[in-house]
TrEMBL record:
All copies of domain Alanine racemase N-terminal, residue ranges: 2-220
Superkingdom classification of source: Bacteria
Chain's role: Pyridoxal 5'-phosphate (PLP)-binding protein, which is involved in PLP homeostasis.
SUPFAM superfamilies: PLP-binding barrel (SSF51419)
Keywords: Pyridoxal phosphate
Protein name in the entry: Pyridoxal phosphate homeostasis protein
GO MF annotations in UniProt: pyridoxal phosphate binding
Naturally occurring in which organism (per UniProt): Paraprevotella clara YIT 11840
Keyword Signal: no
Required cofactor(s): pyridoxal 5'-phosphate
Keyword check for Ribonucleoprotein: no
Stated family: Belongs to the pyridoxal phosphate-binding protein YggS/PROSC family.
Residues where N6-(pyridoxal phosphate)lysine is found: 26
Amino acid sequence: MSQIQDEIKRITASLPCGVRLVAVSKYHPESHIEEAYAAGQRVFGESHVQELRRKYDNLPKDIEWHFIGHLQTNKVKYIAPYVAMIHAVDSMKLLLEIDKQGEKSGRVIPCLLQLHVAKEETKFGFTPDECCKLVADGEWKKLAHVRIYGLMCMASNTDDMAQVRSEFHLAYALFKELKTGAFANAPYFKECSWGMSHDYPIAIEEGSTLIRVGSKIFGERVY
């Protein structure tokens, strides 16, 4: 068994019930994905549309492709026919475009609203207040080809794990607030996408249901 397969087995065996691994395969060759696939992994995360399109064409069709990067509205049409989930919806404009392309594809596309809880200014996403306002405005309820499955966030890039935990904690508190409020009658609203290679154990303790792990499985990126 290869190192990639060993790591997939090790991580998945350690996950609590209800938590899934998104193997972040961006910048990694298709051969690496095939190794992970052989170990039973089916959920992979990509963040570049062109790369995802190529991998989708060349790899097994039972792979569940999650788009985890910043998505430009003009690129949605290329992945709408098959993407399993879009993690980083950071504007109403993007949500409207996903709905439009979902209609063209005859699909309802699962999406996560991206929260900006990190200290860095470079991160995309809604502040908690902006997220609450978007949900309260209710325009999303009219979108027949989009379904909001939960929230996504990235923690600050820091070695201070107490800060990382506090950011995940904030995200989960908002998730619970929305789950008991606007999404009380939406059983599909159940996904919390946070935690990466270096902090996913903390993320799981703070409510994560989808951990996005790349370098720990595949090694350093192949550009």
